[in-house]
Structures are given as structure tokens and as C-alpha cells.
Amino acid sequence: MKTFLQEVAHDLYEKTHGDLSNVAVVFPNKRASLFFNEYLAHESKRPLWSPAYTSISELFRQCSPWQTGDSVKLVCDLYKVFRQVTGSNESLDDFFFWGEMLIADFDDADKNLADTQALFSNLKDLNGLTDDYDFLEEGQKEALSQFFRNFSIDRVTELKQRFISIWDTLGEIYTRYKALLESQHIAYEGMMYRQVIDTLNPDKLPYRLYVFVGFNVLNKVEHTLFHRLADAGKALFYWDYDTFYLNRTPHEAGEFIRRNLRDFPSELPPSFFNNLNQAKDITFVESPTENGQARYLPQWLRENLTEEEKETAVVLCNEALLQSVLHSLPENVKHINITMGFPLSQTPAYSFVCALLELHTAGYNTQNGRYRFTEVISLLKHPYTRQLSSQAAELEQSLTRDNRFYPLPSELEKDGILEILFTPVTTNSNLCQLITKALEKVALSYQQQKPSDTTAFDQLYREALFKTYTLMNRFYTLIEDKDLNVKPETLQRLLTRVMATSSIPFHGEPAIGLQVMGVLETRNLDFRHLIMLSVNEGQLPKGGNDASFIPYNLRKAFGMTTIDHKIAVYAYYFYRLLQRTEKATLIFNTATDGINRGEMSRFMLQFIIEWGYPVKRLRLEAAQSPQGSTPICISKGPTVLRRLWETFDVRYNPKAVLSPSALNCYLDCPLKFYYKYAAHLNAPDEISPEIDAAKFGSIFHHAAEHIYKDLTTHGKVINQETIENLLKNEVRLQDYVDKGFKELFFHLPPEEKPTYNGIQLINSAVILRYVKQLLQKDLKHAPFTFVSSEYPVYEELKLTVADTVLHSRIGGIIDRIDWKDNILRIVDYKTGGNADTPSSIESLFSPDLKRSSHVFQTFLYAAIVCRKLREKQDTRQVAPSLLYIHRAASENYTPVIQLGEARKAEPVYDFARYEMEFRERLKLLLMEIFSPEIPFTQTEIPDKCTYCDFKDLCRK
């Protein structure tokens, strides 16, 4: 395969006889020059002077006295002119993003030498003079007429009036804006190009000959430049094309090449450009996912990598796939050249700055001087924060453990680094200084790293730090010069967007190794073997934002760039890549996701129809190998038994207790019991601004406990008058709820007031309503004697298992005990769920989805209380009760637990009748738990696994 650049190098060498010292070769981009130089060297057997290489944009910059302006400063300057001309009070925050669009329109108008005086004239004048524009071609005149037929100036709406009022000022804005930039010796690109063309004298250019290689679409300034140099006898032109699409009319791939060949004849004959009309090995592949394409890449490279690696290319239509591709390269790839640069957005420097920006904008409340938990934790978890501060991990755990949703800066400034990160800043200037100072600290930590601690990515990350640091300084300068005066939120959006579009160049030898590149980098380059990824509609041609203030028909009428130009350009890139290749594989993703509609590119479909040779079609399928879960069975060997004894025997652990929760855990799933109480595995602490059911119940319990603690200060008897007075005092009731939130949820000191968000306010209101319902239920039950709340009850336990005696305790905390008419109620509050009616005592010990753990818990407490009453010869009956607060408003509701089959169930007013059977069952359960013969196994009830903390470990 002889490449286009080889043909050009040979022809140019022959025409110049090797005298290239006064020749400049101009490419669309500079990458092609590296390959061209190598081919040129092969033409001569002796050393020769290399020609000068430049890109078209560099050529214009070299000919201009102006510098290209900073993109952000350009918008700020436009904003000044906009306000002067219109008298508008619109803020820079609101103006910025459509200001960028306006500059893009000015840029396009200048690059295409549009008559801006006519374009931006009064719309009525423009309509009236439509027939007088002799400089317009017939198609352009028709486009202009079409615009006014659709726009209809006579029928004015509010939106149309706003458009007209702004449009009528654009001419003056355009003129004044260019004058302001010129006074500063800066310009946007189109303004610079137009100035160069207006003042160009070909005789004063530094080189004798300019060779233009591989261009396609030309804007008007480029076209004019080519004409001036051609007329002066100082230009040669080499166009890359194929007769396959050139001779088909219409065909978008050849649309601009046909014009170029007409206006600037090529130095190479058409016979060189008949490659696509020959048979090639071309394969179209469907992939079910985006990353599936990258996973196929190793197989393709093992089979298709050329001996000279640079003759093989991986082209990414979706450049976001770069990371996946880099991680997928197989071992047979010895060298690699990445042309597109590594996205700054995929480096720790980017996420670090984003975390800082989010913290000091959305994450800080200037009114109360507090940070928000989510943004604080995001920064504390960042690897750079952990690298700089030894206190970061401990602080994160502390905030999570204490539910500190709105920490003060003083709580976070645990060391010098954290003081820098968490010092509140009120101005954009201070925010930029804070971020640059933080980046300096990270850079210093890299310098202090030992060589042995460095990784392959460290150099890349250091480059990313430097790039981010320079960007921050650039914004800082604009702010200090009073050019950029925006809200912190707008600064955050600007910084994030500028960083997201930046990349870090890779260093290396471009003309060696497998070529990994984006579509634009392939211009002028040819490859023997080629694989293209993400050749989807929306990626090729690129979808994206074609926003413009200038309507389509006006753009077309004045010869400006339209969407049709872009489609034609991408069509040319597509077909040009396939021209000389011997083997090409094009993969597209069939999944519908976001902008990707799961369709192959229109160019692929068009190629199948047009090309006269067969195209192979393949489909990638993800091989699914379902993981079988092996049953887990933990035998009670010496180690496991020792752990059980250390947990539950008071001789090893003075606080040992077999609580109802532990026993319920075993009944639900013995393996879960092992993980939690023998292996001591705990789920990680999580924090959320939303209140889960357990925390909701705890706050209610706290409020109820303190209400009755206060009511029984001067006596245990609760009468109706006491409850009625409290129900009238809503402020006091709310205070009980607030104290529960403060102590259990926010973990605030007594003097500090909790700050609720919307969801927390709703939860607070619901808990307050539940408290009222509890009091109203007790109002009907009054008078009664309130014995205690949050009352601990325990009973010593001696259990002989395999000749070993376990010394332990059973019991827990009873929510409430009250007494009336010789009945002692053991009350457990429930803020959710439905009342259970177990059919028998046995059902409480039989693993089942509907087994009532709440009743089991309350019966266990009742059994302990019954024994304690007998020991004191107390004849009161014990009534285990579950008080479902959300059902307490019901007229006939009784909290006393019922036992028995449906329609035959009876309230348990005297638990002594069931105590013996309950204890017998309990003893059998305890023997099973501690028996060495019975292993810990998984539950047979799948629904028990749904919310289990250990389901990922268990994999049942």
C-alpha cells in the first residue's frame, strides 16, 4: 500500500529537485507533517533541507500582528460592548453562555467573509433589499427569501420582537467589539483570519512556495488565501480523494473536493485515486454495549496487528472510550502512539478541583456558616485529601458516626491542610487562591515521593496538576483584572467546562507504534489495517450543539457554515479512511443510551448500498457465565465455639447478653447470626439526610420516654387531666421531638438548635402526630400507674452444652411498663408494620416468612418479668403488648397481643399460662445455637435475604 503522503512526498521531491529549503508545507493539522517528513527523507539518498511545516491556523497567526484572545476574556469583553450598545442590565452570569454563541457566529461570519453590514442590518431593510443582492448566488437568494417567508415580520410575537430588537443591535455590537479587541491587539480566530486576508501581500510572505496538502472543506478566507497564492505562482495543491465518491453526484463526501479540484487543480493525476472501486476486507460488527467494543479489541489486534505497528490504527469516534481501550491493549502491542491526549476530566486533579468548587459553592451556607455533609465527605474521601492529611479518614468516620449533616468549619479544621480546604471563602478571587494553594500542596507531595512509590500514571497525574494549576491562574488573572465578574456558581460552571474540554498530551515518537486516534486526527493518514469503534449515528457524524443566533436560512444565504457542511466533512473523513486500507473493521453499539440511538452510522448504511463488493457482518455477544452459589455451611469447630463463648459468656465478656435481636437473628438465618455475633462483621456506617425506619422509631421512643419521665416526676399515677394539659401544649410536645432529633440524629450539644431540611421536617411532623396519638390513647386508658420506660430486664442463664456450662444472660430493654387493674403491661412501641397474631408459641420458634419477631421479643420480656414477680410473690398478671402508634387512633384498638388461630385468637392478659411452653422452646433454641453438632447454615427463606447486610457475602 502506497499512502497519500508517500505519493505527495515523491511528487514534491521530483518537482523541486530536492530543493526544499524555501518551501512551506501546509497541512490541516501538524500531525501529518511527522509522517510526511519520514517519507520525504526516503526520497533522497543524501541529507537534504527539510521544508517548513505548518498548519493552516499557524499560517494565519504568523501573518497577523494580533494574538488569539483568551476564550473567557473574549466573552467578558463582548459583555462590556453588549451593555454599552443595548443599555441592558443583564448580568454576566446570564449573558456568558449565549455570549459564547454570539462570538462563534461572528467567527463564522468572518471566516466566510460574509457581508456583515448586510447580514446584521435591520431585518425590514434586509427584507426590502432581497432582490438587490447581486453578490448572492441563486441558491443563497432563495434561502434568504425562504427565511422571510417563514419569519413574517408583519406578524410580531413577543419572542419575535425580542429577537428583532437584539438583531438590530448586532451590527453595532460587531463593529464596536472588533474595535475594542483591536485596541488590545487581540482577536478571535475569524477576526484574525479576515484581517490577514484584507492586508495580505503574497510577495512579502517568507517562503518561495506554499504546498497545501490534504485539505477538504475550505472557508472563504482559506479559499481566498489559496487564490492569492496561486495567482502569485507561489502555491501547489494536493487533494486526497477517490473517484468512487468524486464521480457520484450528488455525494456529500466529494462535495467540497469537486469545487477544490475545479478552482485549484491537483498536482497528482486522477489515476492515483481509484482505490475504493477495488475489493477490500471490510467488516461491520454489532456490539451490545459501548465497552464491549473495547473488550473485543485485544482479539482483533492479536489477529490483525501489522508487522510495522504504525500501519495499524484504532480510531475512536467516541473519545470517551480511550481509558477502556488503553486497558484492553494486548501483550503483542509493543509500542503505542496516542494522538488525542488524555482527558483532564479523567484525572484526580479534575475531581479534586470539582469537589472543592462544589464544597465552596453549593456546599456552604453563608447564612448559618455551615457546610453540607455530602460535599464535605466527597472532599474528605478524595485520594488527594487522604494523601495530604492524616486526619481526613478519621474526620470522615467521625462525621458519619455522629450524623453531622451541617458541620461548622471549626469542626473540620483538624490540621493545616484541612484548614486550607475548609476555610470559607466569599469571593471568586479567594476561591481561586484556595484551589491553587491546595494544588501546590498536592504537587509538593508528589515531589517528596520516593521513586519506588511512583506508578505508571504518576507522570500523567503530575501533568494534569500542572495543567489544572495554569487554568486556575488564568481565571484568577481574569478576576483580578476585573474582566470576569460572575457569581461563584457561574465560575464553577465555567471552570468545570473548561477543564472538561482540556486534555493532556502524551509524549513519545508519533511515527512509531500502534496509532490510537480520534476521527479528526486521521486526516491525511492511511493505514493498512484499521478498526473504528463507536461508528454510531450521533458519533459519526457528530451530533451535538449547533446553536446559533443566526437562523439557518440566513447562514445559508450569506455563505456561512451550516449543518450540511458538517455532515459533508464527516462523510469525507469516513470514506477517505477506507480508501487505501486493506482491512477495516467498523464496530457500532446497538444499545440505546443517551444520545446513542443504537443505530449504525448513516455512512455505514450508505456504504453497504453503494459499494459493489460484499461487506461481512458480525455480532458480538457477551458470554454470560452465571455464577452458581455454593451453599455456605460453617461448622462449629473449636475456633467458632471459642468466639461464641467470648461473645456470650459473662466470664469472658462481662456485658454478654443474649438479646431478643440476637435470637431473632438466628431464627431468621443461622449464618447471619454467625457473621454478626461470632465473626463480628458489621455493615459500614452510612449517613443520609433521610431518616430510616429504625432512626424514626428511636426518635419517637426518645420523645415518649422523656414525656413520661417528666409526667412522673411527682408521682407514678397518670390521670386524664395531666395528659389533657400536655396535649394542649404543642410547643412543649415539639420540644420533646426536637430533643430526640438533636440527640439521636444530629448529635448536637443541648444549646444548639437543629437545622431541618424538607424531608426531616416532614418526619418531625409525623413523629409529633404519633406522640399525640400515643397520648390520646393513654388518655382513654387513664388513670394508670406508669412503672417505667426504657427499663432493662435481664435474667441469668446457665446452659450445659456438651459437658460445658455457658454462663450468660438473656434480656433487653423494655420500652414501657404500666399497671392498671392488677395487670402489668409490657409495652413495645411500634411506629410501622401491622399487628401479628401468632397461631401458637411453637410458631414463634419456627423459621417462617410470617414468623413474628416482635411478638417473640415481647414474650421473652414477659417471661423474665413473670419469673421476677413470682420471686417477689407478686400476683399481678403480665400482659405483653405491642402498641402500633399509627393504629392507635382506632376506637377499638387494643395493644395487648393476641394468640391463637384466626377467629379463635384471644388476648394474652396473663402470660403465666404460656410461660412454661415458651421457656421449653427457648431452651431448645439455645441448645441448638451452642451445640457443636449443628452448623450455621443459610436460611431457606429467600425473602429474608432481600435487606440482609451480608447478602453480597452470602450470594444466596
Average predicted local confidence, pLDDT? 89
Largest sheet at a glance?
7 strands, parallel
Overall 3D shape? elongated
- Helical proportion, percent range: 40-55%
What's the number of extended β-strand segments?
A: 26
Strand content: 5-15%
Structure description:
The longest helix has 26 residues, at 158-183. The strands form 8 sheets. This protein has a 7-stranded parallel β-sheet with strand order 9-14-8-15-16-7-17, covered by helices on one side. It has a 5-stranded mixed β-sheet with strand order 19-20-21-22-23. The chain has a 4-stranded parallel β-sheet with strand order 2-1-5-6. It has 37 helices and 26 strands. With 956 residues, the chain is of the alpha/beta class. Helices cover 47% and strands 13% of the residues. The model is unreliable at 128-133 (pLDDT under 50). Helix 2 links the parallel strand 1 (23-27) and strand 2.
Q: What descriptors fit this protein?
A:
956 residues; 7-stranded parallel beta sheet
In brief:
The chain is of the alpha/beta class.
Q: How is this fold's topology laid out?
A:
Layout: H1 4-16, E1 23-27, H2 31-43, E2 52-55, H3 56-62, E3 67-68, H4 71-86, H5 92-111, H6 116-119, H7 123-128, H8 138-151, H9 158-183, E4 186-187, H10 189-199, E5 209-213, H11 220-231, E6 235-238, H12 243-246, H13 255-263, E7 281-287, H14 290-304, E8 312-316, H15 322-328, E9 336-338, E10 342-343, H16 348-360, E11 364-365, E12 370-371, H17 373-380, H18 383-388, H19 392-401, H20 409-412, H21 416-421, H22 428-447, H23 458-480, H24 488-500, E13 503-504, E14 514-518, E15 529-533, H25 552-557, H26 563-579, E16 583-589, H27 602-610, E17 616-619, E18 633-634, H28 638-648, H29 660-668, H30 670-678, H31 693-711, E19 717-718, H32 720-728, H33 730-746, H34 758-781, E20 784-801, E21 804-820, E22 823-830, H35 853-871, E23 877-884, E24 898-899, E25 906-907, H36 912-930, E26 936-937, H37 951-954
Parallel strand pairs: 1-2, 1-5, 3-4, 5-6, 7-16, 7-17, 8-14, 8-15, 9-14, 15-16, 22-23
Antiparallel strand pairs: 10-13, 11-12, 18-26, 19-20, 20-21, 21-22, 24-25
